Amino acid sequence: MSKIKTILVSQPKPNSEKSPYNRLKEKHNLKIDFRPFIHVEGLKSRDVRKQKIDFNVFNSIIFTSRNSVDHFFRLSEEMRFKVPDSTKYFCQSEAVAFYLQKYVVYRKRKIYVGEKNLMDLEPMFNKFKTDKFLLPSSDILNPDTIEFLNNININWKRAQLFKTVTSDLSDLRDVYYDILVFFSPSGIESLFKNFPDFKQNDTKIAVFGNTTVEAADNANLRIDIKAPTKESPSMTMAIEKYIQKLN
To answer: Which SS3 state, helix, strand or coil, does residue 9 take?
Structure first.
């Protein structure tokens, strides 16, 4: 088996020089490229109105991603809706809550944050049972999120404010990488939409998360690297472990 020299990560390039991918690249003398296999497009206000969504009736907002934050405030402005200072925000993670500061003065708002996921916030949801919750989302929403919110019996409504679209990767047709790294089922779908005749051969496939594993299995891809695991909680750790074993 040949050594690993090149990796394509199906995400945007990290902004920070301290990215673990940089350390991985330097330590193992790798060529690591970043290319989003999917991208997000925002819906227009008319598309939101067709869903019979009126921002005025909701006093609590549930954010599961930074995209959901961006598009909620973008559409609020587009629809001339001034978000009340009294609005409560329930954020899936610290990263999402921190990003919220782009739009609101953090210390003056009621913001509740999950340690790892939305389920951590169940006690806070129960505390505000009489609130009306809005969940801004893309066209793709994790079924576990829907099941959780239904099970805790809160008054919530989903608003699709943006959609996930396949990126054009035609310029990569004749480019070969030793490892392709995927973080979502949409990334797997994009691969085959762009290259219907894709043959894995010696290409190693790295996947993050159970839904991505399932999508890769359904596409009959051979999975060589999985994360998160107990030994490798991050994708870079899983890749490094594989490279050390192989090289």
So the answer is: strand
